[in-house]
Amino acid sequence: MLRAITLLGFAFLYAPILSLVIYSFNESRLVTVWSGFSTRWYAELLQDDQILGAAWISIKVATLSATLATVLGTLAALALIRHGRFRGRPALGGLVTAPLVMPEVIIGLSLLLLFVAMDNLIGWPAGRGVLTIVIAHATFGTAFATVVVQARMVSLDRALEDAAQDLGAHPLRVFFDITLPGLAPALISAWLLAFTLSLDDVVIASFVAGPGASTLPMVIFSKVRLGVSPEVNALATLMIATVSILVLAASFRSWRR
Amino acid sequence: MTDPQPLLRIDSVTRTFGDVYAVDDVSLDIRQGELFCLLGGSGSGKSTLLRMLSGFDAPSRGRIVIDGQDMAGVPPHRRDTNMMFQSYALFPHMTVERNIAYGLRRAGIGRAETVVRVREMLELVQLDKLAGRKPDQLSGGQRQRVALARALARRPKLLLLDEPLGALDKKLREETQLELKKIQETLGITFIVVTHDQEEAMTLADRMGVMQEGRIVQVGTPREIYEFPRSRFVAGFIGTVNLFDGTITQDRDTDAVIDSPQAGGPIRIPHAITGTVGQSVTVALRPEKLVIGRAPSEAHDNHLSGQIRDIVYQGGLSVFHVTLDTGMTVRVTRTNRVRDEGAAIAAGDRVALGFSGQSVVVLPS
User: Tens of pLDDT along A143-174?
Assistant: First the structure.
């Protein structure tokens, strides 16, 4: 009985993905009709400059915004955990994590208005494009990174940092020698989370992207509106494969320890 | 005790947290090469005092002078002190070797010299074979040694140890106490050990200071503290003690008498005491100073009588709980010199307790 329910649960979660993978190898142009095994959509995908270009932009945006979010999130967590009580601490704690619960439409719209106003006032950021998407994604990525890093920092033994300083290390040195390695697992998680969220986002990106800077999800979304192409299935399968390999590698590494 | 230049001088140091006096006007001189124990319960201020010595906390008032240099405003990484942390605080991502080398590298000691000194330290704590291990691959006792080696590697003027043996089990702790003392004597480095364990303090210390509510209430050798406590608190904190309330009824140059209703009569002391006739005092008597027998013996100048309530057999030692005729219960310990000696006296028996008036300590109530 329990087994059956478990299987049902897995089916509910993964059957759609599985069907997508299977249909990515479909010969037919019609997504719903199976006409034989083929890899032609993968070949066409590699010819599609629009999709490849968008994928490149997405990876660029995700890498930059995840890095920015991890740095800012770590600094925010440091301030919140290691600097005791200071004026504005409760406000910082609340505001830094607010984007977690804020509707994406509102974040997107407000950032768009901000960018337009700034462009008019100080001329920066000039127009909308990769830079504005990176900034927007870093904003909500920081919220997630702060939460992840904060949780780790709380459990980090303060005595380790004291010991390093006692042994003659300048506080800045202590941070790089002791605190950062201690936070490393959280930093990796935070970066991967921010990276994934950025790669995944279509709502906020649609607001703040300019002409010529469409991310991959935006391109897929617009393509699907004209009818689902098997090419998109092939693309999705590649993305799933990449993510699965990364996740497996990560769990293999932690299992070996 | 008025050394012209002690290694460490703590001069009227006070540390307050809001209205709370964590450390309250403590003055203390510690000599070069000494092993000094700070003994006190939790919240007695001993750890706060240690943190001020290492520089992680600063006195609200008073001065700390190490080797002639005032430590005010000197951060921990610029102090010639090292600390062994209660949790050991070994760096989990570094091997034993790199843990020990960390302080040496920060002191600007070259690679070659560091390797030599790390070797020395590993040999000193007998961990040569485990140099390449990570802390989580070590036992509790081994971690303790690494922590000690790491703290000693820089050859500090002053080594501060916060409950250094607290995390070890009893047997290992006893072995390690002796080893720690040996290492300290070999290197000649001044140690300050903070502990709440009075047995540990007695075993380790050249001198010890007993702390209570932020103050040092008595400083002395372990023997002085045990045999001549100056207050009820110290008498009760170090070892067990029987306390009799009484009044001085006679005080002459050669002898004194204290009348104690709790003891059921006068307690005779064969020397003068400080105090005046009529003053209320407490007489402290250690359990091992009492001799238990069926009848009063001629050998003692003081006697008590009562009934055995309970006998706790502890192997080498038996503890007798004796209810005196006055209703007070005293503890008496006796070494079990002969195997079946304990069987002679059983719970419920009437006994006589004898002690010498030389062995008591008269304390202000």
Answer: 999 999 999 999 999 999 999 999 999 999 99
* For residue A93, pLDDT beyond 90: no
Number of CB atoms found within 10 A of residue A242's CB: 10
How many domains does one find in chain A?
1
d(CA B43, CA A68): 44
- Taking the CA of residue B185 and the nearest CA in chain A, the distance in Å comes to 22
Mutate to test the interface with A, among B71, B78, B83 (most CBs of A within 10 A): B83
* Tokens 């192997």 found at: B315
For A12-33, what is each residue's pLDDT tens digit? 999 999 988 998 898 888 877 8
User: Cis omega before residue B92 (within 30°)?
Assistant: no
In this complex, do B85 and A169 lie within 8 Å of one another by their Cβ atoms? no
Q: CA of A181: which chain B residue's CA is closest?
A: B93
Provide the residue type at B100 as one letter: I
Assigned domain for A19 exists:
no
Chain B residue with the nearest C-alpha to that of A172:
B77
- Measured CA to CA, the distance from residue A231 to residue A217 in angstroms comes to 14
The mean per-residue pLDDT over the stretch A98-127 comes to 91
Q: What is the pLDDT of residue B246?
A: 93
SS3 B54: helix
Looking at every residue in chain B, the average pLDDT score rounds to 92
- The segments of chain B whose pLDDT lies below 50 read 1
For the beta sheet containing B81-84, the strands, ordered from the edge strand earlier in sequence to the opposite edge, are: B81-84, B158-162, B190-195, B35-40, B207-212, B215-220
**Which pLDDT score is estimated for A256?**
67
Residue of A nearest to B78 (CA): A168
Identify all chain B residues contacting A181, using CB atoms and an 8 Å cutoff. Answer: 93
CATH class of residue range B8-236: alpha beta
Distance, in Å, from the CA atom of B308 to the CA atom of B110, rounded to the nearest integer, reads: 69
Give A70→chain B minimum CA distance, Å.
21
> Which pLDDT score is estimated for B344?
75
Residue A65 lies in a domain: yes
- How many Cα atoms sit within 13 Å of A94 on the Cβ side? 4
Q: Which of A159, A168, A181 sits opposite B85 (nearest CB)?
A: A159
pTM comes to 0.83
CATH architecture, domain B240-364: Beta Barrel (2.40)
Interface of chain A toward chain B, CB-CB under 8 angstroms: 157, 159-160, 162-171, 173, 177-178, 181-182
The residue range of the domain holding A93 is 48-231
**For residue A5, is pLDDT > 90?**
yes
- Say yes or no for a CB contact (<8 Å) between B77 and A171: yes
Q: Where are the domains of chain B?
A: 8-236, 240-364
| CB-based contact, B228 to chain A, within 8 Å | no
CATH number, domain of A67, equals 1.10.3720.10
pLDDT at site B294: 87
